[in-house]
Amino acid sequence: LHSQAMASGNFGQITALALDWDSDGDQDMLWLNGSLHLLRNPEGGETLQRSERATYTLGYASAALDASLVTISEVADGLILRLLDPQSLSARGESEITGTGIPATGVPGLPRYSLGDFHPGYGPELLRISPTMLHAHSLDGALLWQRPLAAGAYTSAELPSICLRECAPLIVAEYLPTGSTLRAIDGSTGNSRWTIAAGGWYQVHSVVDVVGDASPEALVVADSGDVRELWALNARDGTLTWRALLAGTTPVQDIRRGQDAVGVLYSDTTLALYSRDGRALQSRQLQADGRCERTCALNFRSRGATDGVWIVAGDDSDFLAVAQDLKGDLTEVQL
Question: Does the predicted model carry a pTM greater than 0.85?
Answer without folding.
Answer: no
